[in-house]
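In line with agreed milestones, work has continued on tokenised descriptions of protein folds. One protein thus recorded appears below exactly as we store it:

>
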Amino acid sequence: MTEPVIREGLSRPSITREQVHEALRSLYDPAKLLTTRLAAALAPALPAQAAPRERGEALRRLLLDAIEKLRPSGRVAPKASEYRAYQCITMRYISAMPVADIAAELCLSQRQVFRDLRWGLQRLAQLLQELAVSVPAEPAAPNPFESELAGLQARPEAVDVAHLLHDALGTVAPLAEARGVAISISCPSKGTLVRAAPAILREAFVQLLSALVQSLPAVRIGVAAASEAVLIEIPLPAQGPLGREELLEAALQVARSQGFECHRERDSQQVLLQLRAPYAGNRRVLVVEDNPAAFALYERFLANSGWEPILAQHPRAATAMAVTQRVHAIILDIMMPEQDGWRVLQALKLDPQAKDIPVLICSVVNDPELGFALGASAYLTKPLSRPALLAALEEAVRQRKGA
């Protein structure tokens, strides 16, 4: 066996004499050997992609090699303690001889045989510990599910949890009907907005419902809305994992990627699965626009988006309104009769309370270089599109948070 090169700084579970004894008793049963505590400690030294029986055989070879390393050199007398320990280990675990027969064979007392066995097991534990430390842990094989989840790129927006749950139920309903599982979802009439990518969060809910339908005789989901969070609660059985526990965990993993905290509250009667996400609410955006028809367009664009438009029809009032209304962003026109947007932008950036509010210029005037020089966060030219407006708002707020 090649001498291992011990690498500093690597931590492995400490291997004990008892673990070695347990493994040696299963030396000729690879399947059972692989279930021992020693197998877990030496897992990095075993072939990762091999079949279980092959891994068990590999562990058996490691044990036999370690026993062979106990054999003293030719200069050690056969009666020396090191040689006796090697003989006792070999006879006891390789030849499966009873302790009484070992004692008779070596002309030792049984008490001495037990002492030599303990010393030999301790030395084997040390040798195997050196092996465990010498083998760097193999990096875990990429999880295809996690890789695909990490690759999903989608902008978060305000989405209604209640609506998405009912939408997901439409997908899972045929499965529930086929299995005779009733699903009830109790939701408040409002206040269930969270910030997430709608398609990804919907997929999390589809997986969640599917896992529950395939695991429970009935599914009850309650959604609660508070000023700071949206809470989803699902009663689960108090004992044992669900039949589709792996699918449930995958659903929760997707939900976590969308900002949900997921955990289980346990009592003597049941387990309560809870998914909690911050309440998005409607963020306020001040629209500095002298044209009511243009403001009506913004209202349509921002409907059900998580943004609440507030009109500042008089440009001179924009700075004061931005501060008193505690807005999250400002949409600014340039060509206005009372005061042009450039002056409004300069006034906003000179005000200590308003200067950090993101300003998006939306105008027929195409001069983004001037707009950015004066402090605008984004520049859109009319005519606008809803996706471009929402994307610019989200990016502007994200940049402000990252500043």
